Structures are given as structure tokens and as C-alpha cells.
Queue: 2 jobs
Job 1
Amino acid sequence: MNVVLRVVRYMKPFWKLETIAYLCMLAINGARLISPRLIQRIIDVGIGQNQVDVLATSVLLLLGLTVLQGIFGFGQTYLTENVSQGVAFNMRNELYRKLQSLSFSYHDHAEGGQLLARATSDVERLQRITGRGVLGLIDGVILLIGTTIMLFRMNPLLASLSLLVMPIIILIMRFYLVKVHPIWRLRQDQTAQMTSRVEQNLRGVTVVRGFAQEHAEIARFDEVNNSIYATSMRAARASAFTMPFIVFLAMISTVVILWLGGNLVVSHTLTIGALIAFNSYVLQLVNPVRRIGMLLTVLGESRASAERVFEILDAKSEVENMPNAMPLGDIQGEVTFDKVSFSYLGGKKVLDEISFTANPGQVVALLGPTGSGKSTIINLIPRFYDVSSGSIRIDGQDIRDVTIDSLRNQIGIVLQETRLFGSTIGENISFGRPEATQEEIEAAARAAAAHEFIEAMPDGYKTGVGERGETLSGGQRQRIAIARALLMDPRILLLDDATSSVDTDTEQQIQAALQRLMVGRTSFVIAQRVSTVRQADLILVIDSGRIVASGKHAELIQQSGVYADIYYRQLQPDRAAVPSEVTP
Amino acid sequence: MTFNISTSSFRGPVGRMGGYRDVTGKVFDWEIMHLLMRYLKPHRLAMAEALFWMLAGAGLALVAPYLTKQAIDVYIANHDLAGLAQTAGLVLLCYALAFAAEWRRRIVMNKIGNRVLNTMRGELFRHYQELSMSFLDQHGVGTLISRMLGDVGVINELLSQGIISMLSDVVVLVSIIVVMLMLNARLALLTFTVLPLMVITTAIFSKYARRAYRETRMRSSILTGRLAEDIDSMRVIQAFAEEGRMSNEFEEVNRANRDANISAIRLAAIFSPTMQALTMLSTAAILWFGGRMVEGNVLTVGMIVAFLNYTSRLFQPIVDLSMVINTWQAAMAGGERVAQILQLEPAIIDASDAMEIEDIEGQVEFDNVSFEYIENTPVLHDVSFKIAPRQTTALVGPTGAGKSTIANLLLRFYEVTKGEIRIDGIPEKRITIESLRKQVGVVPQEPFLFPGTIAYNIRFARPDASDEEVEAAARAANIHEFVTGLPLGYETQVLEGSANFSLGQRQLICLARTILAAPCILVLDEATSNVDLRTEGLIQDAIETMLHGRTSLVIAHRLATVQHADSILVFDHGRITERGTHKELLAKDGLYAHLYKTQFLKPEVEA
């Protein structure tokens, strides 16, 4: 569908307000067209012919007209903003919901910053254009037409000469913007480049200083910094000329009116009041006309914004509920992979015919190098992606036949990269079950060995988590994530047993919490440590998307060279483990 | 004739809200002003020029309405067409000159502003290169960047625009008032009666508008923050099936943003018409009283026109002046933050008698070194050891034992709290930092690459290295084959965050970088992350090549490294608890033996 029409459709719910706003705009233009004539009357009749009553009534009328204009002006501005803010509001909600419904494969490819920019600045641009933008354009055109008619009726010769500059102003404005927009964009890019230079310089500070490369870095920075200066000056030169020049053009018009109009007054074809009215007409037209030139340019850019926004709204989600999907009832927790293959969008196969069964309550440890497919197996169970072929069954039911919500509600996830929200610690723990009571939250925190440090915080469970959880240490965040999963009381658990740099005590607590978490649940663990694989009921060694070995530790350590290699080289020991316990 | 009756719309405290910032600090501070003026000093001449053009423009703007009055009262009234043409020509000249003055003024002012911006940014960046590591740790990259973008920006706004336009506003205001009083004092005073009303209106609206627009900016940043966070957390939201609740929460945030914007616009929608009505009130006064005076032959029609003309330019400066205070406040706040950084002394600088070192043997000695990042929380206690030239020493111990601190101190990223570090017997403090770091190469644990090409990254430590040298280094680091296999080879771009290379590949590129730097002493923090077995082999191999013939300090995580080391230092809680060779330490059956059994078991070697 046509992009423009589609944007207009967002205004439809507000058509009543919009109509009133446009009526206000028409009324204002009426007043603008009458006012100069009133002044003419004041000067020619009121003052020129010494009629005090005409002077009085006209001045009062002028004041009245201004008051009316003010009221309509308020209505126009306020209502238009109402409509356009409403459009932005609806658009953002729609975008948000859409982004939530899009599967992981969409988010893998989309850049977070891009999505954010579309939901903020692109929507804002559309908000402006649907509101003040289009209104200003129509307003300018109506005033231009109305003024032209009035002026031609007063004096065609003077009218055509004094209006001559208007199309020129439109053209110059357009020409200027077409020229200067790429320069602005260039400056934006260069500023982004500079920001990234500084950022990388600071993040890589050990490398920069370690190799004593500060001078080279300064030279590189200066280069970007100077290019920003050059670009800014290019833009400045263009606008330093254009803006005063447009004013100058308008002034040429007034000089024409003064000279030619003066001649006409002398030859009695024009009154002095009409000359002054002429002048006002032309001057009040300058800004609206300049706006026309501007809006014509902005319109094109809004189109690009609209296309970017609709691109998200039109994206197809890979993972959707089947039309006849049923909620997943209470489950035992048996998980079966049946010849599951998977490849990311257009990519090569990440999983190749994976088959295994995890019985209820079992712990399945996944082992293998980075990129072998371990995480993919974990991602397929809650349907973050759908299998390319084969099937995954829970208690014998294909997971594509049940509703996504009901499936995910039975699965708890603790991954290494712990995402917390900017709300309170308590709210983060109850994220998956907002209705949980304070007692339940505390119980979960206790089980996750988090209760103590939470209580020690100034506001306890009400302590705010800084943006991206920065006020908490890695170990603390991890324990909150464990509590969050515990509170869900899921039948199936997906986790990563890595402990990010924490001290020995904390690590033991986290390990213990993870152990408690796994009891009685079917658990899939991306194993990073010795203790996990040793107690696993089933170890799957994955390499290049295939299971290359599977079984229990005792069997595998004897039979599988690959397993032994990974076991010795890559797994982390438990620091607290007594040396004699460690094999071989 | 420039008056404009019915539609003069005001750029008011509401119309130009972008200029408002959330500051409620001092409007003026001599100390900060002094610092800021330093940046303007080199531009004194340009400032004078801008001021000149500004005054010229303001003057010409006063002349044109007067000439117009003359045209109407004298030449049109007396049917003097030649005089009319001449006056019209003069008016045109006035406008042309005013245009030229304005054009020049804008260019000069922009030049000053952008130059100052450029200088301040350059100075900040240079300063960042010298600030202590602990300062950078504390402040975070985001803050330092926003000093360079936002704070410097508002300062520049004041220096380049604020000061001159404030002067300009005052000059215009005063001169219009004077001219009007001179033309007709009675009518002028009548016109001025609206002035107090305007000032009061503007003041009141400024107050509310500031609050309203602060609210919109707050709401909008909450909205953006929320969106950013939720887009980032989309996986968690989906994993916990909380889409419905999160949508509702977002809708609330979204609604608050919309409502704040609408109520701010409501203020603007009231302000502009009110000011227009007040302007019209003065216009009506001029027409009515002026008209009565014309009838009494005290005044001419041309004079009325001139009055209308001057009046139309009288009010914008008032509105503008009411806004300048915000620019000052913002600039003072920004200036204070920038000054805080610029006034910081770099923690580590060359001593006055510091010497360059070159062609060193590579002997490293720690003599009773103690160190604390935070006062009274020592990380190292009296650490002493000596590494003979071309020997490899492995540092082993649990996380937090102080191994990385040893590396940081050797590179002089931090200053020792007590004791001394010596290179070839020369105390580090007597060596220039640059020459020290040219001799000590580093391979960080997290392989860090800069955005740029692969070649750029390998060449980082030696930008003048030839292509052959880069390639040789890459070969030595076992990465040449991989790089030449890429479509763009060494010219392949490393994306931000190095997302287009695997961890192992990044490690290899970092090794190539260090190999090319050819340092005499090497600090290597071995990576702990899992990479696939083939790459692991390549890395091991490259590290062995690199260590050969160099004095090396390795924070070791791999068995092979430890076994090949000439000596091993075992760290625990900031002290060296054991030292010796692999065999000796195993025999001791202490912490090392324990760590060895639990951490670096590799059966082929062991069995």
C-alpha cells in the first residue's frame, strides 16, 4: 500500500479533532486577509478623511480580530498537537508489540540501536509531519492564494511585481535544504565517528597506553575533529547566506511597493492606506512561504521514515502460534529431540539431526567448543527459534502444537549474560510471576543465596537496580537471575553454569543455588565445570552441530577421546574441591 | 517597511524550547568564566568584527523605517517622484548592506564557535590520554564522552552566540526606544505602556514553560530509556512470556510522554497569541492616538507608519533576553564539569630527570612492591622478584590474588604505593613513560581490536611498519592464512565490538600486533575462554614463538605455558607464597600442586 496513505490512516481515529483544527486554520487565514484592509480603512478613511467613528470602530475591530485569531490559533496548535501526538502514541505501541512478537532470528539480525532510532526519531518525524507539517503546508498555500487574490483585486501591476519574490523564496529554501541536508548528515556521521573514536580509545586504554600510541591516537582524533569543523563551516556558510538573503528578498518587495506604490499614489490610482496594506500583505506572507519550501523537502524525508517504521511493522515473525494451538497443561518434563536440524536464516546448518531424550527430572549437560551448537539446542526448547526439520516434543507433544506462552511459562532460564530490568530487585525476581507475594520472593531469594546481600542493601528488596544492573556485581546479578527462575517453579530448566568472576565463597554459594534449582526438574546445562558433568544424567558432546558422544561421565571418560580432551582442557574445576576428589 | 501587523509570531520561551536545559545552577561564576574566556582570547579580533557587523546591522535596521517615513511624508505627499525614486534606492541600499552585514556576522560567529568547539574537544581528548587509569575506571566511558559532546556544546553556544546576541538585543532595544522617543515622545510613551505587560507575560510563561519542557524532556528520556532497555531485553521478556504486562507498562510510559508534550504545547499555544494580542494593543494605540494627532496636525501618516515599523521590532529582543539566562546557566554548569576534568593533574608523568631507554637487556626487578587501588585496601604486599633477561616467568594463583596488578604496575599504568620496580637496574620512575612502554609489550586477556582494518590493528603499535612486516607478524601469529582467505584480506574492516571475528581470531590478531611491536619485555595475560581446538593449537604455537628470546611475564592459565616457564611465582592474597620451577613446586605439594591438579590437567603430558 502507498506509504503516504498508510500514514494518513493513523490520523483517521482523530478525524473530528483534525477537522476542527483545519477549520481554525481557515478562520485564522480569513482574519489575516481582512486585517490589512482594516488598516487601510483606518488610514484612508479614519485618518485621511478625519472620520473619528470609522477610526474608532476599525481599531476596535482590529483588536477583536486579533482576539479571535488568538483563540483560533490556540485551537489550531493545540488540536493539531493532540492528533499528532496521538498518532505517535499509537505507532509506538504498535511497534513495541510487534517487536515483542518477533522471534529471536529477527532480533539477531536487527541492530538494537536501529530499532530504537525508528521507534524514537522516525516516529517523531512522522509525528511532526502529520501535525504541524501538513497543516503548515496547506496553511501557507491557502494564505498565498488568498493574498494573491486580494492583491490583484487592489492593483494587478503592483501585485504581480511584489509577489514575484514568493516563488523565488520557495525555490531558494528548497535549494538550500537539498544542498545542506547531506552536509548535516555528513556532520552527524562524523560526530558519530568521533564519538566512536573516543569510546574505543577509552575502552582500549590499556592497549593504547601499553603500546605508547597516545600521539598516534591524538593525530587520528584531530583528523576527525577537524573534519567536523570543516563540515560545520560548510553548513554554516550555506545558512549564513540563505537566511538573511530570504529576508533581503522580502525587503526588495517592500521597496518595490514603496516606489511603484508611491508613484501610483501620486497618480491617484492607489491610496496611501492601500500602499501600507499591500506592504503588510506581503510581509505576513514571507514566513508561511518559506515554510512551504521547507516542508516540501521534509516531506520526502518523512517518507523514508515511514518506510523504515513500516518495515518493522510488516516483518513476519518466524515463530507464531498455530491456529489451533492448545495451552500446554501440567507436564512431567520429558523432552525429546527427534532428528532436529536447524540453520539460522539462510546460514549453514548449525544442528544436524540431533536426537535424544531427557527423562523427567534428569540433568542433561551440553559440552562442546564455542559455536558447536550447544546454545542453539537450548534456544530451540522454548521456541526462540523453530526447528528447520525434525521435531521437539515435551511429554510427547510437539512444541509447535501448543501456545508459546504456556510453553515458556513452564521453562525457567538462567543464562550467563544476566539481563536485569531497571526496576527494583524485588520486581526483578518476580519478573516472570508479577503476582508473587513478598514471602515467595524472599523464599526464592533465600534458595538462590541472594537474600542476605539483598537485605544488606539500603532499601532491601525495594533497592533500585541501576540501568543495566550496574549497581550490582556480576555474582549478585547471577543470583537474582537464579531467584527469578526459581520463583517460576518451572518443570524444565535451561542454564549456563558459568560463574563470572566472583570470589570463591560466592562461587560456592552460586553453585549450591544452582544445584538446588535443578532438583526435580528436567535441566539442560551448558556445562562449564567439572562438578556439573560429573553429576549429569546425560552428557551430550556436541561438535559442529552433531552429537559426537553421549552418556555418563564414567563411561565417556573411558571411551571418548573428545570428551576427555574437553574435560581436562576446558572445564573449570570447583575451587573448593578437595584435590583428592579430582580424577584421574 | 518591515512591520507586520497580524501574524508576527514570537519565538518565545515556548517556541524555542530546544534551548532550555535542566539546570538550576549559578548564572554566573567568575572562575568558570575566566576559564571559558581563555578559549575566546585567540579570537578577540573576530569577536570585534562580529560585534562591528552586529552594530552595523542594527543601525541600518533603524535607518530604513525613517527613510520610509520620509518617502511618504515628503516625496509622496509633495508628488516628488525623483525624490521618491532616490529614497527608495536608499532604502534598498540599506537593506542590501544590512543583508551583507548579517551574512558576515553569521559567518564570523560560526567560525569562532566551531573553532572553540574544535579546540576544547582536542584539549579534552589530549587530557584523556594522560589521566590516571583509576580516574577512567571511576568515571566510565559514557561520562567522558558526554563531557566532550554535550557540555562542550552548551559552552560553545554561550561563547559564540549567547554573548553577542545578548549585546545585540540590548543595543537594538535601547536604540529603538531612543529613536521613538526622539520622533515623538508622547506617542512613544503611549506605545511603551505595553512593555511591562510583555515583560511580565514573558516572565510568567518562561517559568511555566521551563517546568513543562523539563517534563517533556524527562518523559522523552524515560521513553527512550525504556525502549532501549526493553529492546535489549526482548529475549528475556519472551522467555518469561511477559509480553502482555510489558506492553501495558510501555503504554503507560508512552502515554505520559504524549501527555507531557500536549500540555507543553498548550502553553506555547497560549503564549504566542497573547504576545500577538499585546503587540496589536500597541498597534491599536498608535493607530488611535496617532490618528487623532494626525487630525490635530501634530503627526504625519508617515510617522504612524514609522512607529508601526519600529514597534514591530521592539518585542523580540525582550523575549530573547528572557531566554539568555538559560544559556548562561547551562554553560556555567557545563563549564564546571569540563573544568573539573581539565584541572585534574595526570597522575603519572615523567620525572624531570627521566631518561629514555633503548636497546635494553630486559632484566625486570620488583623490589618490595606494595600497592593499593583504594586506600587502605592493599592488593600487593612487599612483592619482590627478579627476572633475568630472556627468561619466562609464569604468574599463577587464584582470581584476585594480584597477578594482573603486577602487569599493570610493570607497565606503569598505576604507580606503586611502596617499593620500586627496576628495568635493567634503572628505577621505572626514572624512565620516560613512552620509552618504557615501547620496550614492554602487552597482550591483554580480552583481545581488544579497534574499528578499522585488520592491517590497521596489527600495525597499531608501529604505524610505520611496511606491508611485509605486517604480513610477517601475521604469519608468526598464525593468522596470515585466515586473513588472506578473506575477500578483502588485510583490508577487511573490524566492526565495532569486533563482532565479525571469533574470539580465537581476535586473539591471534592481537598476538600479531604485539609481535610486530617487537618489545623486549612481554606481559601476557592468557585468555581463559574456550575456543575450538584447532584455534587453540594455533594460539599456543604463536605464543611460544612470541615468548622466545624475550623477557616475559605470563599470567598463566595453560599448562604448557607453566611447564615451559623458567620460573613460576605463585600468588595468593597479594603475596608470593611459592616460587620455583614446575618440578620443584610439584614436589612441594602446596598451593601450586593443588592448583595444578585442579586446573591444568592434561593427561598426555601427565601420563
Job 2
Amino acid sequence: MSEHSQPKAAVKPAFYKSGIKPVWCPGCGHFAVLSALTKALAWLELPREQTALLSGIGCSSRIPAYTDLYGFHGIHGRALALGTGLKAARPELTVLVAGGDGDGLSIGGNHFIHACRRNMDLTYILMDNQVYGMTKGQASPTTDPNWDHSKLTPHGTHMQPFQPAALALAAGASFIARGFSGDPAGMTRLLVEAIQHPGFSVVQVLSPCPTFRPEQKGWKHSIHAWDWEATDDAVEAARRIHADDGMHTGIIFRAERPVWQPVRCQQTTVEAIEQEFVP
Amino acid sequence: MHISLAITGAGGAGVITAGQLLLDLLAAHGLYGLMRRSYGPQIRGGEAASLLRVADQPVYCLDDRFQLMIALDWKNVDRFVDEIPLGAGSLLLHEESAGPVPPEIQREGVRALPVPMKALAAQEKGGRMNSVALGLAARLLNLQPEQAAALLDKRLHRKGEEAVRVAQANFEAGYHWEGLPEPVFSATPASTPPDWTLTGNEGCGLGALRAGVRFVAAYPITPASDMLEWLSPRIEQLNGALIQAEDELASINMAIGAAWGGVPAMTATSGPGLSLMLEGIGLAVASETPVVVVDVMRGGPSTGIPTKSEQADLDQALHGLHGDAPHLVLGPLDVPDCVLTTQWAVHLAEQLQAPAIVLSDQAMGQSRMLARKPAEIQFIGQRKRAESPGTDYQRYAITADGVSPMAIPGTPEGMYTADGLEHEPGGKPSSAALDHVMQLDKRARKLEQHDFGDLWAEMAGEGELAVLTWGSSTGAVREACERFCRQGGRVRMIALRLLLPAQTDKLAQALAGVDHLLVVEQSHSRQFDRYLRAWHALPVQPRVLARPGPVPFTPGEILTELESMS
């Protein structure tokens, strides 16, 4: 896989960037996600006009405008629904969906589990910084229950955080990986594999928020790569996820599952359908 | 020449099937008919009624009185007694073993006749009372039993030969029951007989397909589910796709995603679902993505009366979006008009790159009608695409008509990011006051400046007295005006098909010279009346005939209003 870390000479990652300056804070992990994504696209040499990147609302969801792809910055939580409709209508496109932990797991949580279950050929990049950044620092579904730095929950949330990989596995996703924005080469590899995977692929990216979660700068010391290959055994994957501290990176689970696609059957015409109205 | 009859019974007793078979039988005789379904929310054990009207010309509403009622039992009959007004001379056939006629059904002058339907059905093993009831109805309407036998064979064929034989025998037992009085109806076939049978929900589905809709997102909700179920297998045969979504938030956004991908897209729902979709419809406004939402209205608010009709989602369709959000709101006027109005809505949405809400309702959506085939419409509204965008392409370019060429994914050099955030012409997010007003202006302009032609309303008649209505109330208004004119009265009828953008000048012109105005709508809080006052300049203070669902307006009560106003 190491060859994935370097794009081929033919297409440069910059080819996929729009040149619009991101709104992100200095030191934000999302810069590295954007960089890794464009590297992955370059490695795959995907035609820009055949690739769509859709998102919801939040810091991470601003990513489409920073690429030179067909982008859609939709409404909070509904990015996967937008992507699902697009992919069903235009199966030949490469459809990527991106967003944050609040967008994808709180307001959009229902779409996330059903997208896993539907297993359409989409790639979902979940940029997880365990905080709502755009609204200035509230706890998200992946925030530690004792994090008491939010004015909204000054005593902490007292709720167990979601483990996105466990949620994805339980809901039926066929490709689950975790990356770290501090490891752009590793993240590029994961994104290449995720985009190539036929079916719904979830890439959780631990992407620090230096503004509201400055302690996440320490993640670079606690991240470690899995020392095993991806499994296609859901029981084994569940065991690994639950035994983990949430800081391992790599492909956790990869399996062949039926991919939802529009039914293709005997074709007819509207005129022929109208015959059924004749009494 | 026309007659109205109701077949009632417990849910699962087959009265809806009997009604539909009776409608088929009418078609075989060259007669017109309308069948409205009234039923409770239970799947089995509730109550159901087929409310039919038979005539030698198209009928769009139920009548003032029912001349015939066939009751298979009395179970929960009180729940729809208000929807089946009997009167002097009405004939009431009721199952003998079910006991005496309940007081709430019995009216002055109603001829009640106990019939041993259960015993007649039991003459055949596996026999069913609804086939006996069909036989009774066929005899009283003077229909030919040979046609019925052939029809039962056609419709029940998949259930096997024995099922067909039993149904035919049950039908014969009812038809030849010796206790029946003389037929109450004798119609000659219409000179131009019906050549189509459809429900409003099928009509909306077909209108969408005719207009090129090839993606549908669906979340089940009464009374819209049967439109989605009708579409599902058919859209697949047209190289399209239907997805069952996880909720209505997903269905509207799936439809927007598909439409943004260049494929005309639709979803259908009812009031509560429309509420959930409103934020998404706002995204379609801001991102200028065409999408059509059909709302088959039911009683509200909240879960309300899910199985029965009301015209009370008008407020949320008109005003439910946040921000200044120009969009289209249309309402079909009757069952066959569901085809035309939905087709038009799709064309308008595509042409104007804006969302369109189509307000049908349960009364139209789930009524089956024998009709003439709805004509193909002559206009085609197509999306203006950016075929070769070039490096300076601006998705939201400021144009004279407000419509900006749209690059569809797959178009080289057209890459841009569609956005619900306010944006500058290139699509880049902007909170600048000038960008906001320029984009608000263009989105408003493309709807305001569009020439909607003659389809905005249906108009008939003349005079200084006028009736204004919309949606499924049109049928009863139309017939009341016809009766009024036959009596020598003069009245103008105006039924609005296009509610937003409001055709203020056209309606003012249509109402010129009017000195008495009646507004008819099925809403408790007079939503249509308030819409008229907000968006239009009415020449006079209207009288308002407004009431909530589910009891439909009848021509007679509207006629009474017209008589009192002239």
C-alpha cells in the first residue's frame, strides 16, 4: 500500500483544489483531511467532473467548496441523504460525503445508521473532533462525558460517547476505517481504499480542534496503528473496536455485502403504462 | 341522471373491493362514476365505506343525498354516518342478522329492508357478503349480470377458479334475491363513455412520470403511500429509481440530491411529513434545485385524522419556509386534474429551478373516478443547463429572468459547489448585504416574471356573483354553479390551480365587476380566505363557506349559499 502515499506524476493534488481559502482556524486538523483527500483523488486519477462531494453543516462540512469537484453544501445532518439520492440517480458518479461528529452522529444520526444499512457505494468521511466548532464549542455525541468546558453543559454531558466504528459495524457498514489528520500519508491510503471499496465505506478521521479542544494536540502521542490486517469477521471487528481505546488507526473491517442499487428490469414506456388506466 | 350509493361494513369486510368492482361494472356499461373511500385508521376491525356516485356524465363530487345504502353490518357505523346523508325515499339494505337499524342511521322516510346477506353468502363455502352486496347493487342499478360475471373472472382470476366461481355465485344470489324492490336507477350509456379509470394518487404519479420524473424518494404515510407504491414498480421500468427513505428529512434531501444530479425528482407525503421536509425545501430554494413534493392532505394538526380529507396544509405550504423563500404551490382541482397539475408542477420546477409543492388531499387522492383520458399538455418546461460552462462559469449568475444555467455533474469545467449558505454568483459563500439582495432578487424574479399562461385557474360562467375555491372543493362548487345556471342564475366560478406565485393581476381581472363573492374551502381557520386577503385585491368582502374535514362539501349546500346571495 505504500505506493498510495505518493500521487502519480500525471495528476497533482492541487488539480482538485479550488483555491478558496478555508474558514478553518490555524492548526485545524481539517486542512490535512483536505490535503489527504486531494492526494487520494490524484492517486486514483478521478475525473473532477465525475466526482461529487456533498456535506452538511459544521466546520468540516465546508470542505466541498475547497475542492474543484461538483460540491453540495447542504443542510445540517442531511449530507448522506443528499449523497444517497445523487448516487441512486447517477450511479456512474463517484460520490463522496463529508461531515463532522455533530452533523453525522447527532442531527444526522438516523441517516448515518441507515446509510450503513443500505450499503450504497458511497464514501463517508467523518471528521471527528469531538466538539461542535461552528457554534463555538458544545459537546457532541463523541465527547467524553466529563468534558466540562462547554457553557451549554458546564458539568459535562454525563452521557457515554458514541464509538463511531462500533455504530457503523452494528448498522451494517461494509468498510470501516479510522485515520488521523496528523498522519496524512496513512489517511490518504485509507481514503484510496475507501473510495475503491464497493459499498458504504466509513472513514472516521480524528481531526483535532485546536480552538475548542486544545488538549487534542496531544493526540499525536496517543495514536497508534493497528498491528493486524482488516478483518471481514464482524464478531472479531466488534471485539477489536470495544477492546480499543479509540486511538488505533487503520482499516478495521472490510467485507463484501450486497450493495444497494436501483433495480434494473424490463423497460417500458409511459404510453404503455397508461394502458392500465383503460377500464 | 345520477344516483348515489354507499356500501359500508367493518374493515376487512371487502366493501372497498365491492365498490371498486361496482365502478368497473359501471365502466363496462359505458357509465361514469366516482368512488370515495372512507375508512378508519385500523387495518382490520375498523370501519370502511365505499361512497359512490353513478351518472351518465363525469361526476367530480358526491351528491347531497344517498339514494341507496347497503350495510354489511353496523359496526362503528356511527363514525361515518355524517358522511352518508340519507333522506326521504332513500333505500337502506342491511344485514338481517346484524340487528335493527341504529337510531343514528334511521331518518324520516328512509325505507329500511333487512337482507340475509350473510346467509346468502354462506350458500357457498368460503362465500363473502361483499359479493352478495355487489349483486344487490347491480340489480338495483339495472346493470347486466353477464358483465359482472366476466368482470369477477377478470379481477379475481389470480385467486383461482374456485374463488371466481364462489364470487360469481354470491353475486347471483344477491342479484336474484327475491325480496328486492324494483331497480332505483336506469341509465343509458353516455354518448361519450369513460375511457379511463384512475385515482388522484395514481394521477399525480402518472403526471410526474409524464413530466420526466425518474427519481422518487418515499417514506410511507397515509394517505400518500399508495401513490408511492404505484410509482415504485413503474419508475423502475422507465430506467428510474425509487428509494424507501428512513424518514421524510431523508426523502426530501434524497430528492434534492438526485435532482441536483440532473434527474427530475419527486417525493410525496402528507401534512406531518411536509412539516419535516420544510427545511429541505428551503435548501432547494437557496441552492436553486428543482424538486416536487406532493402533499396528500389529511386532517390535522399533528396525527389528526390520517385517513380523512382536509384542505388545511395550505398555510404551511405557503408560509412554512424560513427566510424569504420564493417557491411554487399548486393544487389539482379534481381526480384527472392530478395528472395535469403534477405534470405542470414538474415542468415549472425544472424550468424555474425551484421547489414546487402540490397540494392534493385524501378526497382526491384516494377517490377512483371513471373519466376521459387526461389530455397531454402542450408545454414542456426544461431545465436550462450549462452545456459548455467554460472557466468563468458562474452557477448563480445574475440574469434578466433570474434563471441561471445549471451545470450538471459530469459536465467538464462546470464544477461548482451548490450551497444553502447565501452566496455570490459563483457559489462561494457570502454574507455581504449586496450578494444577499442580488440573490434574493433573482430567486424572486424568476418566479414573478414567469408567464404562467392560462393554467393558473379554471374559470367558467359570468355574472356579478362569483365563487372562488381551490383543490378538491372545486368539484362541488363546479356542480353547484351548473345547477345555479340551470335555474337561470348567473355566476362566475374561479378555481385556483396555481397558488404561489400568486397571480394577483390575473385574479383581479377575473373578478372585475364582481359585487358578491363566495369563498369555499375545507379548513376550520379559513386558510384560503386569509391567503386571498394577503395576496390578492378582492373587489368585495367575501362570504366564506369554510369547514374542516372530513365531511365533503355537497353541491346542494353551495347552491343554497348562491341562492341566498343573489
